[in-house]
Amino acid sequence: MATVDVIVDNLVSLWRIPPIRRYFPWTFIIISVVGSCLKELEVVPHTYFSSSRNVLNVYFVKVSWGWTLLLLTPFLLLSNSSFSRSVSFLGQRLLSLVVATAIWYICTETFFYIEDATGSCFQTNTMDVVKEFSSKASCRRAGFHWIGYDISGHSFILAYSALFIVEETAPMGSLKMASLSPLPRMVLNLLYVALNFIVILWVWMFACTSVYFHTLFDKLLGTLCGLLGWYLTYRVWYLKPLSPGLPPQRQPKEQK
After folding, report:
1. Is 214 a catalytic residue?
2. Which of 52, 95, 152, 205 is 20 to 30 Å apart from 62, CA to CA?
3. What sections of the protein cross the membrane (predicted)?
C-alpha cells in the first residue's frame, strides 16, 4: 500500500496549494463559457463522448449523486471520527450530507418542473404539436419529442458534486498524525483516492457537457445553481453556530 500512501500525499499537497482551492469554483464558469463558444463555432469534432450513451454518462453521470454519497459517507465517518467519536459530533457532520442531498433534490426537481411548465410535445418527424401530453415523461413514453426550457442538470450536479467532495475531503491533510489503526487508515486512503478520481471524472464530463450539449445560458444557469448551493452552505451558513459546521481540521500546534 506504499504506492497508495504516495498518491495520497501528493493529492493532499496539491489541494493545499491556495490558488488551486481558491480558484477551483471558477474553473466551472470558465469551462462552461469556453466550451459553449467552441460548440457554437463547431470546431470540436464529434467523439465517443458526444453521445449521451457513452459509458461514463450512463453509469456514472446519470447516477452521479449516488456515487458521491456512496464514497463520501464512509469517508466522512472515518475522517471525522479521528477528531471526535462523539455521536452528536458525527451526527452533526452527517447533516452536511442531508443538506447537500436536499439541495440536489430541490434543484433537480425545479429544473424538471420548469421544463414541463415551459414545454410542449411534438411529433418527431413533422414537429406538429401533440396537445394531449402535458409532461416530458408522458410525451417521451408515447414516442414523441418534448421541447421545453432545459436548464443543464448535468452542469449543476457535476459542479456541485465536485465542490462538495473537495470541501468534505479537506480534513485529509490534518489526519497524517492521527492515531488510526492500519485497516481504517488503508480504507480512508483508498476512499480519498477514489473521491479525487471522481472529482477528475466530474470535471471531465462537465467539459464534455460544455462542448457537446445545451446552450450557453442553459449551462451557465445550471452551473451557477451548483456554485450558489456550495457558496451559501460552505461560505455562509456553515460558518454560523446553528449549522452542520465546516469539516474539522487540526491547527499546526495540535498536529505537533
Report:
1. yes
2. 95
3. 59-78, 90-107, 146-166, 186-213, 220-238
